Amino acid sequence: MDKIQKYTSKFVENARGYHIKLQELRIILLGQKTVGKSATGNTLLHKEVFASSQNEQCQMQDGEVSGRRVTVIDTPGWWQNSSCCTDETDKEIARGFSLSPHLFGPHAFLLVIDADASFNATHLDAVTSHVELLGDGVWRHTIIVFTRGDWLETNSIEQYIEGEGEALQSLVEQCGNRYHVVDNKNASDGTQISELLEKITETVAANGWGYFVPDQQIFQTLEERRRKVKEGAMLRQSQVKATRESLGGMLHYHLASVALYGNLLKLLCQSVSTLLLYVM
């Protein structure tokens, strides 16, 4: 963790010299449901513009923050379990790019994680499955934002990262050890946002002052997934139909057999009755 602390100090120090070079920032919020994405967007813009409820569509808001025009796009959150991932959620996240002003890509992604909750391999799988869909280069533009900073109390964020184990540590390293802590309950604390903006600016500088250009294959990938889901649904429907037809045939056979046995039984009874009358 000493390496992370040293890197973070240098990160903030270097960022202070870049603020004048970037007068506009475009940011996309990513994360699981209920981790405080929307609240982070509100804190970042210093106003209540994103609904706290679990939105299913991208929302864009902007404002002036510390003398810069900041555009924030809030995306739908995903479920903790990657097996619950839906194609619609990923398509809506991808649609967030089209909301960016002038159709320019975002300068940074803020990957929001709740510091008041555990982070294990299941969470990592869900994060990876959604974020990597945007392209391999997305990690170079991503900063982890830990919410509920008040929960840490006397503990440092480095202690939290170390305590959560390999899953969270690997994600932090994947993001180049770029992370920040916010306390959305203390939204009036402008320092936490000014420091976050400095880290974002440092990230943009490290990427040659350019913005993220999504991999065009993202849309092909989504279409391919949509096609596979549709084909899977059609296959299941055909299997269900075949099963029903098979069961229907078997039922028809059994009913015919029952009818046949019934007729035989009826004839047998009639024969016995006739025989009894003859004997009597």
UniProtKB/TrEMBL annotation:
First and last residue of the signal peptide: none
Q: Which GO terms describe its molecular function?
A: GTP binding
| PROSITE patterns in alphabetical order | G_AIG1
Q: Which UniProt keywords apply?
A: GTP-binding, Nucleotide-binding
- The AIG1-type G domain is annotated at 22-221
Protein origin, superkingdom: Eukaryota
**Family to which this protein belongs:** Belongs to the TRAFAC class TrmE-Era-EngA-EngB-Septin-like GTPase superfamily. AIG1/Toc34/Toc159-like paraseptin GTPase family. IAN subfamily.
- Specify the protein name: AIG1-type G domain-containing protein
